[in-house]
Amino acid sequence: MENNISIDQISKLIQCKEDQSIARFNNLNLYTAVQPIFSLAHKRIIGYEALVRVKDDSKRWISPASLFTKKYEISEAILLDRLCRYLHIDNFSKKNNDINWLFLNVSPQTIIKGKYFGQFFSQLLEKFNLPPHRIVIEIVEYPIENNELLLENINYYKDIGCLIAIDDFGAGHSNFDRIWTLNPDIVKLDRSFLLKASKEKKIQKLLSGIVSLLHQTGSLVLIEGIENKEETMIALESGVDFVQGYYFAKPSLDIESSSKINLSLEDIFLDYKKNELKKEKVNKKEYNKYKEFLSIIINKIKKGYSFKKSCQFILNEDEVIRCYLLKPNGVQIGDTIASNSLVNGDIRFKPLYDTNSADWFRKPYLKNALLHPNQLQVSDPYLSITGAHMCLTLSIMFSTEGGDKVLCCDLSY
Description:
Blueprint: H1 7-11, E1 14-17, E2 20-25, E3 28-39, E4 44-55, E5 61-62, H2 64-68, H3 74-93, E6 101-106, H4 108-114, H5 121-127, E7 135-139, H6 147-160, E8 163-169, H7 176-182, E9 186-189, H8 192-199, H9 201-216, E10 220-223, H10 229-238, E11 242-243, H11 265-302, H12 307-310, E12 320-326, E13 332-338, H13 340-343, H14 364-371, E14 377-378, E15 382-384, E16 389-400, E17 403-412
Parallel strand pairs: 4-6, 6-7, 7-8, 8-9, 9-10, 10-11
Antiparallel strand pairs: 1-2, 2-3, 3-4, 3-11, 4-5, 12-13, 12-17, 14-16, 15-16, 16-17
Helix pairs in contact: 4-6, 6-7, 8-9, 8-10
């Protein structure tokens, strides 16, 4: 093939110095640095991302960005991409490790155009005897509209047995459409999620929801760019599977020493568990208080008091938003008894205030109450349609002469 960029051609640009391979490109020397990737559940390294480090002829380190942001002819861009992957696999194959993954960055443009420059990657893996299941092809952020064409070419890597990761999800042009189309094995969340979540509690909850949604698509989730303990705790709470960042280990040219870290994931988990236990104790004390309150309301209802009169006292609690009664089929009985803060609340949502005969059968707090009669149930936080604010619901099913009922009390969150 006239445009063939072969392994033999690339190998001529590689030289070995002191058990490390170095690549030569446009009067620059390219080196392999690796940054460990950790599994939180396993509390250990499960992979390494390969990164390029660059020296000029004066032996000065220069920014790798200057290498990749330069505009190249497509043949030169393919050559640079293949040269980097050759270099990284060459160096990684020297590492005394036969289990962990190697993450290799590839731009969508390179993946799509690469097929016009001859076979390469499967031959490269064969040359260094590296099984394809140990390679994670990381699709870096790059604007491309034709995801179907990208998928067609990504399937080459899937077919030979590699894993696929989407990088920088949540930044630039990345979106769920690319996730649906490419069906990656791993999604790497951009650091911007951490920055926003560390400043606003609401974003932390949103992050957990995004992680849960990505898990439902069949993707494991990695969050990158972690730089301190606070961000680590956010990552733990969000439910991500893998973490990467300077807090754990910086990229290193010494591949062997990159597996030796000073940070103890065991200690991090101990701190996390202590914090969660403290929250649990506080919540348990708070919910026990409301359990007593709801018992008082139920007794008043059974004695014949009106629902409004029965629950009036609980509305003095700052956290209480509203109380309402449901039939076991989810249909609301009568009006919602709202706190003063809600009655005088955001008038823009007034069309949603009247919930008489509304049907809440879809709500988990109702289903849980039906499954556990006479036991207080506490829902996860959710966005209430009645006022569009975050709340959680306490619910309990009890029996009356007129049949079973479910008492619900919404607390602000």
